[in-house]
C-alpha cells in the first residue's frame, strides 16, 4: 500500500472515531450504588423517613447512579418499583461545563433520590398483598440486579432490621446457632440461586435488630448469619450503624 493510501486510511479512521465521539481518554467507570429500605414491621418500630433523610445524602456521595429496592413480604408481587436514577450532571444537563451548576444539579438529584425512596416506602406500606413476611434476600437480589454492575467500588445501603421471614427461611425460628447450621442454610440458598451478586461491594446496614428479639445471643446469631451470607455473596465486611 502506498504512503498516500495509508495516510488516507488513517484520516478516514480518525474522522470516523470523531464522529462516534471517540476521545483519547478512556471512559470514566460508573459507580453504581444500591439503596434498600424495609417497609415491613420495621417501619412501625422506627422512623424510617428520618433515617433516610439523615443517611442517604451522605451515602450517595461518590455514586454516579442509584438503584432502589423495598423490602416487603412478596417482592415479585409488588408494584412499588423505580428505575435506577442518574446522580451526576452530564453534558446534556450542563453544556457550559459550569462546576457550580453541576454541583447544584447533583445536589438536586440526591434530594430526588431521597424523595423517590420515601415514595416507594409509602407505596409498599399501602399494598395489602405484600404485607405478610419480610423478603430481605429478595430485595437484595433485585436491587443488585437492577443496579447492573454492583462491583468494584460499589456501595449498598440497607435500612432494615434484617429479620428475613419467608416460607423458605424464617430467621425468627431458624436453626442458626452454629457455624455449620448457618453455612448449610446459605449453601442451600446458593444452590437455589438465591444469593445476591455483591462482589467487592461495600455494604452498610442501619437499624439491624431493632425490635427483633430481646435475646442478645439470638441477636448475635442473626448477625453472624448475615455476615456469612454477605461474605458468600462476595461483599466486603459489613458495616453496622
Task: Characterise the protein shown here.
The chain is α/β, with parallel strands linked by helices and 241 residues long. The chain has a single domain (31-240), classed as 3-Layer(aba) Sandwich (Rossmann fold), CATH 3.40.50. The chain has seven helices and six strands. Helix 3 packs antiparallel against helix 4 (99-125) and helix 6 (179-191) crosses helix 7. The model is unreliable at 1-25 (pLDDT under 50). Keywords: Signal. Residues 1-19 form the signal peptide. This is VWA domain-containing protein.
Could you say what the CATH architecture is?
Answer: 3-Layer(aba) Sandwich
Give the distance, in angstroms, between the N- and C-terminal Cα atoms: 67 Å
Instruction: Give the total of domains.
Output: 1
Low-confidence stretches: 1-25
The helix/strand series, from N terminus to C terminus, equals: HEHHEEHHEHEHE
Summary keywords:
7 helices; disordered N terminus; 6 strands; globular; 241 residues; Rossmann fold; alpha/beta; single chain; six-stranded mixed sheet; 42% helix
Amino acid at each position: 500500500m502506498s504512503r498516500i493510501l495509508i495516510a488516507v486510511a488513517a484520516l478516514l479512521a480518525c474522522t470516523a472515531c470523531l464522529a462516534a465521539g471517540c476521545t483519547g481518554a478512556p471512559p470514566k467507570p460508573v459507580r453504581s450504588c444500591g439503596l434498600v429500605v424495609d417497609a415491613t414491621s420495621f417501619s412501625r418500630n422506627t422512623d424510617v423517613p428520618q433515617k433516610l433523610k439523615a443517611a442517604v445524602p451522605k451515602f450517595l456521595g461518590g455514586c454516579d447512579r442509584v438503584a432502589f429496592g423495598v423490602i416487603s413480604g412478596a417482592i415479585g408481587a409488588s408494584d412499588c418499583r423505580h428505575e435506577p436514577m442518574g446522580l451526576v450532571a452530564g453534558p446534556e444537563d450542563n453544556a457550559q461545563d459550569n462546576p457550580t451548576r453541576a454541583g447544584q444539579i447533583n445536589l438536586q438529584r440526591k434530594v430526588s433520590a431521597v424523595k423517590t425512596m420515601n415514595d416507594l416506602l409509602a407505596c409498599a406500606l399501602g399494598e395489602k398483598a405484600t404485607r405478610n413476611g419480610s423478603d430481605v434476600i429478595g430485595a437484595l437480589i433485585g436491587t443488585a440486579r437492577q443496579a447492573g454492575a454492583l462491583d468494584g467500588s460499589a456501595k449498598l445501603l440497607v435500612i432494615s432490621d434484617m429479620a428475613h421471614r419467608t416460607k423458605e427461611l424464617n430467621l425468627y425460628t431458624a436453626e442458626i446457632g452454629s457455624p455449620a447450621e448457618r453455612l448449610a442454610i446459605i449453601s442451600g440458598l446458593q444452590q437455589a440461586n438465591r444469593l445476591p451478586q455483591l462482589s467487592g461491594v461495600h455494604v452498610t446496614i442501619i437499624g439491624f435488630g431493632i425490635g427483633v428479639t430481646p435475646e442478645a445471643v439470638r441477636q448475635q446469631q442473626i448477625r453472624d448469619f448475615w455476615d456469612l451470607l454477605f461474605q458468600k455473596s462476595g461483599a466486603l465486611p459489613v458495616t453496622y450503624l
